Amino acid sequence: MDKTGAAVIGCGTIFDQHARVLHDMEEAELLLVVDSEVTKARREAERYGCEAGSDYRAILERPDIEVVHLCTPHHLHAPMAEELLAAGKHVLTEKPIAHTPKAAESVRAAAARSSAQLGVVFQNRYNESSRRIREVIESGHLGRLLCLKGAVTWSRPPEYYTENDWRGRWATEGGGLLINQTIHTLDLLQWFAGGEIERIAGSVTTDTLGDYIEVEDTAHACIDFSNGVRALFYGTNAYLTNSPVELELIFEQGALLQRRDIVYLLQDGEETELCRPSQTATGAKSYWGVSHGLLIRDFYRHVREGRHFWLDAEEGGRALDLVHGIYSASRIATSIMPGGRGYSS
Ligand SMILES: NC(=O)c1ccc[n+]([C@@H]2O[C@H](COP(=O)([O-])OP(=O)(O)OC[C@H]3O[C@@H](n4cnc5c(N)ncnc54)[C@H](O)[C@@H]3O)[C@@H](O)[C@H]2O)c1
């Protein structure tokens, strides 16, 4: 089988989730790993049997590299994606698409101009539970979706920020809890709700990490969609453990609850299990989910068959629009609340 040549830029925390999948894929070959800290790149190149580099621009001169994975800090996603797309490289970028709405707009434009594809990693859309929930919504079996809510209560200790200087800063992370951790749940809420965002109320605060970060660690929002669906959201990095994300969807004739990745159906006063994922992640990183492999393989399938990948710059940018909608709403909310410690630009 002819293999699609791949490179990964950024050999940090998420790197392995990409490299391991590429290593196991018959149709792809990891040729190069790049990190500005070349010792990291060399270490991973040795583990995966490929070349190491410290300057991603070397990829532009490599016709054998067709797909590039971006596992770099948020503020580097847009400039790297734009340059690679202009050179005809397919780009699979980790979330968020960019660190600001303006940068996201440039990525959208670069993707539209390019002959290559851009995909955004929102792997939780590939979770069995998420797929099952979408099926129920689309089937109409429970009637119309009325409202939904999502709660994310996770823990990020000060060291998470102090060990990596790009985190916790507006200029490099582009925000805090919302743009980095809860963007996955916000993405699912808007994907399930299905309409355009019409109104957002909400606020962000820094409840426990104020001595370490300039961004938020806690947020809430009330989001109204054009189809009448309302979503409520609460998220924090100030919990002392990473609890499984909780979701609830209320329909005209029943409800769905997601707890510990298991989806329960509530109908006529009875609760039944609708979906128990066959694979569940374990260990400290279990809150990332198990679906990186599914998304990466799907992206390559589309690239190899010349089909358009669905989680593209438009679709993958929606969650960032929502994140920034909450930041804007918070600016308004906190400016009328004396003593509010919310977002300031
Ligand atoms: N999908 C998920 O569930 C998930 C989980 C964790 C992280 N992420 C995302 O992955 C991305 C990376 O996050 P991380 O936690 O791995 O960060 P990290 O800081 O652990 O790793 C980033 C790596 O990029 C390297 N780097 C920085 N500048 C570079 C440059 N100019 N050229 C090449 N390499 C450079 C750094 O040296 C570092 O090794 C972020 O977008 C983050 O939001 C996604």
Describe the overall structure.
The chain has 10 helices and 14 strands. The chain has 2 domains: about 140 residues, NAD(P)-binding Rossmann-like Domain (Rossmann fold); about 160 residues, Dihydrodipicolinate Reductase, domain 2 (2-Layer Sandwich). The protein has an 8-stranded mixed sheet. A 6-stranded parallel sheet has the order 3-2-1-4-5-6, with helices on both faces. The longest helix has 23 residues. α3 packs parallel to α4 and α4 packs antiparallel against α10. The chain is about 35% helix and about 25% strand. It is an alpha/beta fold and about 350 residues long. The site of nicotinamide-adenine-dinucleotide (NAD) has 24 residues, from α3. It holds the Pfam family GFO_IDH_MocA_C3. It comes from Saccharibacillus alkalitolerans. InterPro entries: Gfo/Idh/MocA-like_OxRdtase_N, Gfo/Idh/MocA_Oxidoreductase, GFO_IDH_MocA-like_dom, NAD(P)-bd_dom_sf. This is Gfo/Idh/MocA family oxidoreductase.
How many strands in all?
A: 14
CATH architecture of the largest domain: 2-Layer Sandwich
Distance between the termini: 52 Å
Look up the CATH topology of the largest domain: Dihydrodipicolinate Reductase, domain 2
SS content category: alpha/beta
Name of the CATH superfamily of the largest domain: Dihydrodipicolinate Reductase, domain 2
- Overall pLDDT, averaged? 94
Provide a count of the helices: 10
Q: What's the shape?
A: globular
Radius of gyration: 20 Å
- Measured by DSSP, the beta-strand proportion falls in 15-25%
List the ions, cofactors and other small molecules found in this model: nicotinamide-adenine-dinucleotide
